[in-house]
Amino acid sequence: MPTTLTPFIDRRHAGAEESPAGRERRQFANSHDDLSPEAGELASAIDNYKLRHRRRFINFEEMLSVMKSIGYAK
């Protein structure tokens, strides 16, 4: 009984040519326009942290670190 093998399809880069260059999926909203000035400052600080550290998502410790870096104190 002959069997037909399905070829391997590498999906890790599928659709990469369709997405705009330099566009990165974000943990939070892509636009900070609807945020208060304080929330916009935090969002920008988090985005900068993620870019510097090549992180797509951050954990709570990292978020606290970012918050303290822009002056948050309990």
Radius of gyration, CA atoms, in whole angstroms: 20 Å
Please report the total strand number as a whole number: 0
Label the structural class.
Answer: mainly alpha
Which percent range fits the helix content? 25-40%
Number of helices: 2
Low-confidence spans = none
Oligomer: single chain
Q: β content, as a range?
A: under 5%
Q: How far do the termini sit from each other?
A: 71 Å
Characterise this structure.
This protein has 2 helices and no strands. The chain is mainly α and 74 residues long. The chain has a domain at 37-69. The protein is elongated and about 70 Å long.
Can you give me a brief rundown of this structure?
With 74 residues, this protein is mostly helical. The protein contains two helices and no strands. Helix content is 35%, strand content 0%.
Protein traits:
single chain, 74 residues, mainly alpha, 2 helices, 0% strand
Topology (SSEs and partners):
Layout: H1 37-52, H2 60-69
